[in-house]
Amino acid sequence: MHFLVFPILRLLSDSQTHSITSISAHLNCSCSDIYSALDDIASFRINLSNQYDNYRWIDPVQWLDSQLILKTEGLSEACYDVIIMDVTDSTNNLLLNQFKILNSNVPLHRFKTSVVIAELQICGRGRFNRRWYSGLGDSLTFSVGRWFNQNISTLNGLSLVIGLALLRTLNLFSIFNLKLKWPNDIISVTHYQKIAGILIDFRSITSCLSYAVIGIGINFLPNREVRACIEQCASDLYTLSGKNIDRNSFCGSLLVELHRILVDFENHGFNYFKDEWVNSHAFEGKNIFLTLPDQSIIEGIVSGIGKDGALRLLTDKGVQAFHVGDVSIRIKHVVN
Fold first, then answer.
1. Helix (H/G/I), strand (E/B), else coil: 284
2. Per-residue DSSP letters for 65-82?
3. Which of 62, 79, 123, 172 could in theory staple to 89 by disulfide, Cβ–Cβ 3.0 to 4.6 A?
């Protein structure tokens, strides 16, 4: 990607008309550099109006702003170290690489919770190594790196709890027609379309110190090209709410809720959230098909979850428990 892509886009964010010569003068570069960068911008399917080398961004994105995010009521800079990147391959990968160079002997209290947010994530990861597709400014893709003063084995159910934080925040923005899908997807109630996903990478340091990178992706309003790449049924916040949700405001509110829920999780464990999670599960009491890693399929009725976050399924062999892993769920549609 050309190094001038984002400087040009930020300059054009005023929705005013800018000539090639004025852009090159403003950025102190050659016109040929501007043309090269504009070729890369075109690959993002960004709608730039061009009349005789005069460019205007008709519908610019809302840029993320760490200062606006940290001004959210209830959010303290003492809790989070927020970094916003123009572009990265994967925010989870970035924090995992950062973790590798940290000295694990540094006392826990010296670490803030790290947050890396990407305006454009080009190689986002989902479960089953699926690609998480997003475009510039059409989603919120970020990762939270948090230290836990406990053994990694005690973090069962963390991914489910993060789903609750997302759902609570969506409700705060008056979006109520969403539910959880085990283990941690956010889906629409009516068509079971995915709105947001969570991917957590764990690292064990010692018997009493662990590190988790919590990756979150939320669809705000993907463009047609991004939608065409998504390999499953998906929707977005604009389609559900009819509103353009402010990404900075939403991100700040979500970070407030994440801090609250992570502290409660560390102090009380998953069982503290169990009833709230079951009440929020889209498939609770429903007949589903569960596909296992060996591609075998088990049919049963969802019957709550265990204290460790395992899915409980009432099958013809009795109640069976399934843990988070390479398993997928689809509902059984009854034909009348």
1. coil
2. -HHHHHTSTT--TTTEEE
3. 123
Give the bridge partners for 81, in sequence order: 114
Taking residues 217-237, report their average pLDDT: 70
The angle at the Cα of 104, spanning 160 to 95, to the nearest 5 degrees, equals: 50
Give rounded-to-5 percent helix, strand, coil for the chain: 35, 30, 35
**CA 214, CA 164: separation in Å to the nearest integer?**
14
Q: How far is 115 from 91, CA to CA, in rounded Å?
A: 9
CATH class of 287-331: mainly beta
| pLDDT tens-digit readout, 224-233 | 655 555 556 6
66-279 adopts what CATH topology? BirA Bifunctional Protein; domain 2 (3.30.930)
The domain made up of 5-57 has a fold known as Arc Repressor Mutant, subunit A (1.10.10)
281-287-288 Cα angle (round to 5): 80
Q: How far apart are alpha carbons 169 and 256 in whole angstroms?
A: 9
Q: What is the pLDDT of residues 76-122, one digit of tens each?
A: 766 788 999 999 888 999 998 888 766 545 544 456 788 999 998 88
pLDDT of residue 144: 95
183 upstream amide cis, omega within 30 of 0: yes
Average pLDDT over residues 53-78: 89
